[in-house]
Amino acid sequence: MLKQIVQRFTTNLEALASSSSSSSSSSRFDVHIKWKHLYHNRFRSMSSIPPHTTTTTTSYSVPKERVDCLVIGAGVVGIAVARALAVKDRDVLVIESAPTFGTGTSSRNSEVIHAGIYYPPNSFKATFCVRGREMLYDYCSKHDIPHKQIGKLIVATRSSEIPKLNDIINRAIQNGVDSLRMIDGTEAMEMEPELQCVKAILSPLSGIVDSHSLMLSLVGEAENQGATFTYNSTVIGGHHEGNQICLHISETKCLKEWKGTSILQPELVLIPKLVVNSAGLSAPILAKRFTGLQSRVVPPNYYARGCYFILSNTKGTPFRHLIYPIPEDGGLGVHVTLDLNGQIKFGPDVAWIDGVDDISSFLNKFDYSVHKDRVERFYPEIRKYYPNLKDDSLEPGYSGIRPKLSGPCQPPVDFVIQGEDIHGIPGLINLFGIESPGLTSSMAIAEYISTRFLG
Ligand SMILES: Cc1cc2nc3c(=O)[nH]c(=O)nc-3n(C[C@H](O)[C@H](O)[C@H](O)COP(=O)(O)OP(=O)(O)OC[C@H]3O[C@@H](n4cnc5c(N)ncnc54)[C@H](O)[C@@H]3O)c2cc1C
Fold first, then answer.
1. DSSP tally for the chain: helices H, then strands E
2. How far apart are CA 76 and CA 443, in angstroms?
3. Ligand 1: nearest atom to the Cα of 306
4. What is the DSSP string of 155-175?
5. Cβ atoms of 106 and 311 closer than 8 Å
6. What is the pLDDT of residues 289-347, one digit of tens each?
7. CA 245 → CA 239, 273, 402, distances in Å?
8. Could you give phi then psi for residue 87, rounded to 5 degrees?
């Protein structure tokens, strides 16, 4: 099996090397690189350090390779960044610990294209959500990615909530979100006969997207532009040497087998000119393993699990729009989301959970269980706006975990994008706290990184 993979990889490398300018002619390939193989074969433009060189500041006696751009994590954000860098003709290597792309938070969310309503004006979240939404609709239309601009209603279910709706719409207008309309409960309930509310904001720009198709398309495009995705490979730490960051790489299999009784040694050290730490839930915990990076620049991280329950045992689809209550602490409230097949799911709720140790985090060993007892909290929340919800109509679905930078009862924190100006290490970009609206914002974050850090 390994032989086949190696052969396929070599063939593709040869194809890439021989295609002088037209990188679009190279086919999509599914690369699983063994490290020893990587060491013996060159990426395009990769310059090699003599085989037996050891670092001067560490005791690692392992192969070292220079790379141009390295992206850690193949979630939607890492993939979008890889594509944006590859489009600018940079050589890009993506290192992903899982066996394929998009197995983290990027496949455990509501798949909603947010309009950009809730976030503080001029924040990264507001700016990237508005820009990212425009880019996403455009990209989905051009690349036939399943999506639908179904619109959303944010509802006040009692008159005491109306001032909050006013605050939300004012903020959204400041964020440049167009076409919003405050409507009476009667109008909202005419649009959605199963809905109960006293007033609502109609957001026609909100929609849904098939996130897997999106990621597949972005990966394909990045690869066609010459980027290489390497799965089953984990960045376990790094150090700063001279003016460079050196990343310590291990096969994920070795991490799984590691008993914790010996020092964890990398199998390869990669020395990128530019590295984007887009490891999602693990990004801060990984940054703490970069010796030379001051610990004060790594923000505290918190985890808030959100569970979904699926509507079953109900005739037809009760709603055509996304229905959102007033936001709650830590999340947007237990809302109605439709997927592109018309299935209705409710969620996500908010449960603050403990993290896991660093290696378990890289292996995505978070607690994603959806306890069926939680459903008892869902019924009363949902019946505030959907009073006809029948008993026993909710079944456990799935859960996702929000990579948060503020804890319970603390105000929300913006996305954090750290470059050399913050932490002093040239070429290192840390992405922290990329929670919702990270899916919507992904292409705008990528655009920002490729513009600001590549010039
Ligand atoms: C419950 C929930 C609902 C949401 N709903 C929406 C929504 O409707 N709309 C929206 O816009 N956003 C939503 N979001 C936010 C959105 O899902 C995320 O912002 C986005 O998916 C983050 O993508 P990412 O690439 O940063 O992280 P991830 O998808 O988590 O990707 C990180 C990748 O890094 C890999 N990795 C980790 N450690 C290492 C390592 N050491 N070495 C190599 N690889 C590593 C992981 O395996 C993973 O594949 C939601 C989030 C949650 C939790």
1. 13, 21
2. 9
3. 1
4. EESSGGGHHHHHHHHHHHHHT
5. no
6. 999 999 999 999 999 999 999 999 778 899 999 999 998 776 778 899 999 999 999 99
7. 6, 8, 28
8. -60, -30
Spatial distance between the Cα atoms of 370 and 351, rounded to a whole number of angstroms: 11
3-class SS shares of the chain: helix, strand, coil, % to 5: 35, 25, 40
Q: How far is the CA of 234 from the centre of ligand 1 (A)?
A: 16
Among the atoms of ligand 1, which is closest to the Cα of residue 76? 25
Which residues approach ligand 1 with their CB closer than 6 A? 72-78, 95-98, 103-106, 108-112, 114, 234-235, 278-282, 286, 306, 348, 362, 364, 400-402, 434-440
Residue whose Cα lies nearest atom 2 of ligand 1: it is 109
**Cα–ligand 1 centroid distance for 198 (angstroms):** 35
Instruction: Convert 412-435 into a string of H (helix), E (strand) and C (coil).
Output: CCCCEEECHHHHCCCCEEEEECCC
pTM score, whole prediction: 0.90
Ligand 1 atom closest to the CA of 361, numbered from 1: 38
